[in-house]
Amino acid sequence: MYDAGKILIGLIIFLAFATFPFYSNMGKAVAKPDPKIDTPVIQQLEVKKCVESKEFMRAEHMQLLNEWRDAALRRGERVYKGSDGRTFQISFQNQCLRCHSNKKKFCDECHSYAAVKPYCWDCHFAPKEAKR
Amino acid sequence: MSISRRDFLKIAGLSSLGIGFSATDLLWKDRAEAVEYMSSPKGLTAKRWAMIVDLKKFKTEEDYRRVIDACHRIHNVPDFGNPKDEVKWIWTDTFEHAFPFQKNEYLPEGIQEKKALLFCNHCDNPPCVRVCPTKATFKRKDGIVAQDYHRCIGCRFCMAACPFGSRSFNWRDPRPFIKEMNPEFPTRTKGVVEKCNFCVERLAKGLGPKCAEVSNGGLIFGDLADPDSEVRKILKTHYTIRRKAELGTRPSVFYIIGGDEDA
């Protein structure tokens, strides 16, 4: 092999860079996301239940939000009857965020952990801003 | 072990069937059974919403201002303070600009100088809907031309297609330019087009458009498809014109220009 020394040094430098994220985070435990739902509105609820089950909301809230958006905006259907028969007014800003007024501890907690940046807040008011 | 071509094809066929069946349960989501979407029982419904603008009722600058401010306040419409970036849902312009084909130099003076109150015509044949590449702009069943800002990519084809200038583009982030925020209605973001929505969010609550509410009878809102509605009665007894009707977009906004004072 010609220039074996140079190539090997180059390879080592490359590997050092490529694996940097792994060894720099080794041994450091990143805190698990711990979303909170203890807002004043939720605490006053008799049955602390979202429009669907906790498991469903956890896994599918993004699909549900899309469905709600299309129903309200495109079809003009602004009432949602959940699988347990309860009905809700469809509105992200005036319904979802009425209970979930703790964006930092409820939304951002997991979204930051998973490094997803939903563009909700470009247009919809984050709950705190609305209060001022 | 050897396998004949025929046997191989049999096994391959059966396995693909099996894979197909096992995938079917992915299509059945656990929730699908009882979920239902309904329109609000309080909401106002129609076949084709329309508006009549009685320009005789707009006498002073303040009559126009009140209507425009009320709309822009509840919909978080920004005021950039410069005409190049202007975002507007409802505005005024000269008679000549609003009705270019109706203009002639011998019109009565009161009409020549009269400012027209303008907003989206919610056309029955809307060119903005036809050109939208993402279906962000669409026509609802009740005739309202609505826009889904989530889906708008800011291409501005609709602005080129609209012959009435009813659409505005957000060249900058509108948030810092909204004086009073209405927390119940979203804002828009940089890079989307926006326009009048005939107050769909109020119709769903059983209220009419805000501009009509504060206009002191200058704006009349109703169902064009219902022969007994107020708008149809007014259209039957008054001569009305529409903006650039000859372009074939079939606007749903009608203007009473002159005539009896007690219309």
Keywords:
heterodimer; A: 132 residues; mainly alpha; two-stranded antiparallel sheet; 8 helices; 5% strand; elongated; B: 263 residues; alpha+beta; Alpha-Beta Plaits; three-stranded mixed β-sheet; two-stranded antiparallel ribbon
Gross CATH architecture of chain B: 2-Layer Sandwich
Q: Total number of β-strand segments of chain A?
A: 2
Order of helices and strands of chain B: HEEHEHHEHEEHEEHHEHE
Multimeric state of these chains? heterodimer
End-to-end Cα distance of chain B: 96 Å
List the helices and strands and how they pair.
The complex is a heterodimer of chains A (132) and B (263).
Chain A: H1 4-18, H2 20-24, H3 40-43, H4 54-74, E1 79-81, E2 87-89, H5 92-99, H6 103-113, H7 120-123, H8 127-131
Antiparallel strand pairs in A: 1-2
Chain B: H1 5-27, E1 36-38, E2 49-54, H2 61-74, E3 90-94, H3 95-98, H4 109-112, E4 115-119, H5 127-131, E5 137-139, E6 145-147, H6 157-161, E7 168-169, E8 193-194, H7 200-203, H8 210-213, E9 219-223, H9 230-237, E10 253-256
Parallel strand pairs in B: 2-10
Antiparallel strand pairs in B: 2-9, 3-4, 5-6, 7-8
